[in-house]
Amino acid sequence: MRRIPLAALLGLLITGLFFAAAILAPVIAPYGPSEIVGDVWEPASAEHLLGTDNIGRDLLTRLIYGGRTTIFVATLATAISFVTGTFLGLTAATVGGWVDQVMSRCVDVLMAIPPLIFALVILSVMPVTMPVLIIVIGLLEATRVYRLSRSVAVDIAVMDYVEAARLRGEGRMWIVFREILPNALSPLVAEMGLRFIFIVLFVSTLSFLGLGVQPPAADWGGIVKENKDGIVYGIGAALWPAVAIAALAISVNLIADWVLSRTSSLKGGRG
Questions:
Q1: 71 with 204: CB under 8 angstroms?
Q2: Residue 195: how many CB atoms within 10 A of its CB?
Q3: CB burial readout 119-130, b (16+ within 10 A) else e
Q4: Is the dihedral of CA 123, 128, 133, 136 positive or negative?
């Protein structure tokens, strides 16, 4: 712990608190997520630490449950994007030739379309359920992971220990998972943290536009949408989820910066 920089330690602490709150939401939330406990947009008080929302629900409870949904969706979508993008990127770099060209050009076409517009088009013609939302976001973000993993793997694939594995007769999957992947983990792990935050923002944006997490489930983007009209009257209910998103983004970025600066996958390789 003494070797961890203060900034990274702060990031770990804040991120851990967010994840702990998401896991323990039913235990720590003072009220039910849909329970109306007061008047509309009540100010902060002993009973409601952050006040109430646009229909009288406890705002702190909504934030806790909203964080649970946001983190759950973002975590699963990040996992899908990294499993898919990393596997395809490392495979393309290892196989090379026309396989690499076809895969890379397809990814280029997908990346040429703004992901938000792409997601809005897909979700406008499909049922907006939690599994569909997770899969769509995960596959769209996988294109970014593909580009990074392929770029890193292309440099690693020419290393001597990879060539030695080929000369030993090792199969392509062995080379991908035993030679290239372990030496590409550092930038991939750092990118995972950044990608997680981008997906949190992505999910929140879709919910704000009405095509993300659907009521009665709560997420941070949806809470902003529900309470945005209060800003006109000086009500800050919509600002609290924005603060939560910013705090989570900063804390995860601090961890990602520490991970990236601590190790480098291209220093020497496996040998």
A1: no
A2: 25
A3: beebbeeeebee
A4: negative
β-partners of residue 58 are 52
Chain centroid to CA 122: 19
Please name the residues in contact with 264: beta carbons below 8 A apart, sequence gap of 6 or more. Answer: 186
Of 266 and 260, the one with more pLDDT: 260
Q: Residue 62 and residue 48: Cα distance in Å, rounded?
A: 11
Fold of 6-262: MetI-like fold (1.10.3720)
To which H or E segment does residue 43 belong? none
Which single residue is written with the structure tokens 């659907």? 214
- Tokens at residue 57, please? 């629900």
Angstrom distance (rounded) from CA 60 to CA 210: 22
DSSP helix/strand/coil, 52: strand
Cα–Cα dist 152/56, whole Å: 51
Give yes or no for residue 261 having a pLDDT over 80.
no
- Residue 15: pLDDT band with limits 50, 70, 90: very high
Q: Is the preceding peptide bond at 215 cis, omega within 30 degrees of 0?
A: no
Answer whether 0.90 is exceeded by the pTM.
no
pLDDT digits (tens, 9 = 90+) for 113-138: 889 899 999 988 888 889 999 999 99
Across the chain, mean pLDDT equals 87
How is residue 112 written in tokens?
């040429």
Residue, of 213 and 266, whose pLDDT is higher: 213
Phi (first) and psi of residue 58, to 5 degrees: -65, 125
